[in-house]
Amino acid sequence: MPGLPQRLQDWAERRLPALTRYRRPEGLPVELHRRRIYIVPTGFGLGFSVLLLVMLVGALNYNNNAALLLTCLLGAASAASMLVAFRSLDGLRLEQVRAGHAVAGESIELTFTLQSSRPRNAIRLDLGDASASFALDGHGAALVKLALPTEVRGWQALPRMRLWSSWPLGMFRAWSWLHPAQSVLVWPRAEMAGPAPSAAADDARHMRLHRGEELAALRAYQAGDPRRHVAWKASARHDNLLVKDFEQPQNQPQWQLDWRQLRGMADEARIARLARWLNEAQQHRRSFSLWLPGNEIGNGSGALHYARCMDALACLP
Amino acid sequence: MSALSPALARRSTVAAVGQRSFDLLSLGMAFVLAVNAAHLPWWLSLALACALGWRWWQRRQRAGRVPGWVKLPLLALLTLAVIVQYGNLFGRAAGTALAIGLLVLKLLETESPRDVRVGVGFTCFTLMTALLFDQGMVSTVVVALGLLPALATLRALEPAQAPASIPRSLLSPLALLAAALPLALLAFLLVPRLSSPLWGAPSRDQARSGLSDRMSPGGFTELLTDDHPAMRVSFDGAPPPPDQRYFRAYVMARYDGVSWSYSDAGNLPPAVLDAAHAVKYRITLLPTHRHVLPTLDVPIDVPADASMRRDRVVMAARPVDDALTYALSSATQYQLEPQLDEHHRRWLQLPAGFNPRTLALGQSWRQRHGSDEAAIVRAALALFHDGGFRYTLAPAPLGRNAMDDFLFDTREGFCEHYSSAFTVLMRAAGIPARVVTGYQGGYWNKLGDYLLVRNSDAHAWSEVWLAGRGWVRVDPTAAVRPERVSLGAAAAAGDQLDWYHDNWLQGFRNRWDIVNRWWDQAVTGFDALRQRSLLTPFGIRATDTTTLGVLLAIGTTLFIAIGLAWALLRRQSRDPLREALRELERKLARQHIVRHVGEGPQHYLSRAARALPSKREELMELAKRYLDLRYAHDEPPTESVHAFRRAVRDFRAKNVVK
């Protein structure tokens, strides 16, 4: 249950979008321009203007024109810093947002690609409580990484983010809302513990031991190594005998993970169990296949295959 | 093309203040100490500088706030020191000393960005206080330079910026200040000035030593070594010759054996003056905090807001607390007061029981020369000229019978001694005589066409009343040291002055004074009165506060508009090839063929050619030409680039039937 101010703000943004600077989600790339950059003085800026006022009254009272000139100069420089703050955001482009992988409850890493045709300093990107600052050199793009907390599996829309800067003097804060119409996929959280998948697929065909064909490395000869494994040509260039070492054969059985096997369980519990099995399979470098209602993923292994299976799990209704 | 640079992004750091910000803040505070050193007691400046240096060194070793048991005693010590030095904690001098002390103490606990910002604000304030004591041009410029480290500190507080060395980071706020200068000048011109202060007028104790309404032999010493400008005089027409450049301030009648004093003769009309040759001129008098307005000997009329006193002394209605410019005319050949009035006894007054030998000498001259008063004057001047007298700014001290000691024993002194002794001698001989103080000489600045009169040009001379001629100016100092009158005080003093009164340096300073004069006129002297007449060239006689406010608002808006135009300006990229490719991208994007980040032009255009089969030939040709222009030349030929741009412009993507 969000607090009253939050609810008030939500209501205001719904009813008074113009007043609250609310921006609907929009497609990338987003280029900042004058109609969406706002500027307010910071607390320091307000305090400094009070100080300027004190200096002004003092200079006028003592009829001290040199002090008055100094005060005017400082005031004008502060006012000019407002324009500089605006310019440090104007024309900035958010090109792309890429998301990493995360399971529900963890933070997902977002990578923002920002581009500008001129150098900029001290720009900050706020996303919830997380904040990152970056500079642009005017040639390449800046990659900004931020963590977005997640709660449930499935597609999660990107929240509204604030891009802001108080460059150069910290007296004015220029900001703009970014709300890309983009979602990130959050993988399901695996259950903590549970049974292993039934070994229906553990047939002898997959248990067969075979020597790999791929050459992995050369190692020193040990007594008992077969003679045909000695790398003669390589050994001729060394003092001792070298032996070809071949990749160890796959001795793990293939897992056929099936939604239908988990009858009598709630959908989310099934997903959590399948996620745990996928994790274990990936951890032990097993190959596996996955059957889901409306989606069947054939046998395979590796990070890409794992990600494909997790994506499919995450997308289940 | 749009190759990704290595990530410049950086995780934001929390709270801790970087070494760069702290260094710059320390530098700014050191600047404050330096510009304020002139009016702080030296031991306080030294102690604060030590505290500043120690804190800077200490934080380099290990960041962290200085503990309270160090800070609190220092705070108490500072307060005590200020009270001991100034007697209170408030007022301009004491308040400034306290503020600067607190500023340095603030550095002891500076660890967070908030502390640094407070420190910067305070630094700006204490920079301004230096100007309350000296608003000359050089010090103003130096103080304005002190804003650079302060603003650089604020910049250094911002996260994630391109690295820069300390001198570079000091220079970058200079651009901001330069850009702000026009608006600052406008505001300076138009901010309505107060015609009377809101609180406490500037205290008199800061008055630089100037001419006083009392004079005792030896009292001028400080004044004669003070070479601050006292006033600047410009003449309508040719300036009078050097031996007529006498500016009278006070006419002193009363002598009490120790000092001469001026007493206002009330509402008596000014003495009768038959002027033969009038000179018109204009004087800009720097603040003296006194009423008297020096005038060329002797004034005929008075400026506004001033009155002419009995002895042709001009007094302003209010003390001169700010630079004041007044115009009037004087007679250089004149007959002043041909007939003495009934108060003439005061010109013969002498204190009883003082200077018996001097009185005897005067009376003996009267007996010898009888009624030939001119002969008595000549006798006195001859005594000064031939009697072994010496001109020096450091004479031996005099006893109770000061004139006796001077005339018969020490025989050394400067204008005060000579005019004083001469006047006493004349009075002893029965001739009405008086002492006049003021300025004599000055430096004629050819470039600016004005006469610069410094405090060191202060002078004292005598006037004697001779029947049939009225008051006649007699300068006994000239009898001893004629250079004093013809060449000026510095020439007369010879090598008795400090090294910086050296000839070439003094010459440079005299010429440089034209800049100071301009500054005093344009900036320091720009008061409520001048502001009101600001719009006179535009036909508005008196500009009131409302008009000024409106003008200020209009001007500020104008400058902000210019600034906004700058801020909103999108600079065209200088690469016509890239522009052309962008245009092509835009055209293709309308057909939903969007170039991906990191996608090269060849890949993109061949993808586009596959997507738009009917335009395939054209697109492949464009891709080939682009790659050729981009990569086959260092500088692609301009006509080919133009041809490519034309081709892109003529390219039609939307006629395609999908």
Number of strands of chain A: 16
Beta fraction of chain A = 25-35%
The count of DSSP E runs of length 2 or more, i.e. the number of strands of chain B, is 19
**Low-confidence stretches of chain B at least 5 residues in length (pLDDT < 50)?**
1-14, 203-207
Quaternary state of this entry equals: heterodimer
What's the structural domain tally of chain A? Answer: 3
Number of domains of chain B: 4
Strand order of the largest sheet of chain B: 12-7-3-17-16
Mean of residue pLDDT of chain B? Answer: 84
Order of adjacent strands in the largest pleated sheet of chain A: 2-10-9-5-6
Q: List the secondary-structure elements of chain A in sequence, H or E.
A: HEEHHEEEEEEEEEHEHEEHEEH
* Number of helical regions of chain A: 7
Which two chains touch over the largest interface?
A: A-B, 69 and 73 residues
First and last CA, distance of chain A: 25 Å
The shape of chain B is elongated
Portion in helices of chain B: 40-55%
Query: What Rg of chain B, in angstroms, do the CA atoms define?
Result: 38 Å
Number of helices of chain B: 23
General description of the model:
The complex is a heterodimer of chains A (317) and B (658). With 317 residues, chain A is of the alpha+beta class. Chain A has three domains: 167 residues, no CATH class; 74 residues, no CATH class; 32 residues, no CATH class. Chain A has seven helices and 16 strands. In chain A, strand 9 and strand 10 form a beta hairpin. Chain B folds into four domains: 141 residues, no CATH class; 75 residues; 291 residues, no CATH class; 75 residues, no CATH class. In chain B, helix 1 runs antiparallel to helix 7, helix 7 packs across helix 8 and helix 22 runs antiparallel to helix 23. With 658 residues, chain B is of the alpha+beta class. In chain B, the strands form five sheets. In chain B, strands 12-7-3-17-16 form a five-stranded antiparallel β-sheet, covered by helices on one side. Chain B has 23 helices and 19 strands. The N terminus of chain B is likely disordered. Chains A and B meet through helix 2, helix 3, strand 5, strand 6 and strand 7 of A and strand 1, helix 5, helix 6, helix 7 and helix 8 of B.
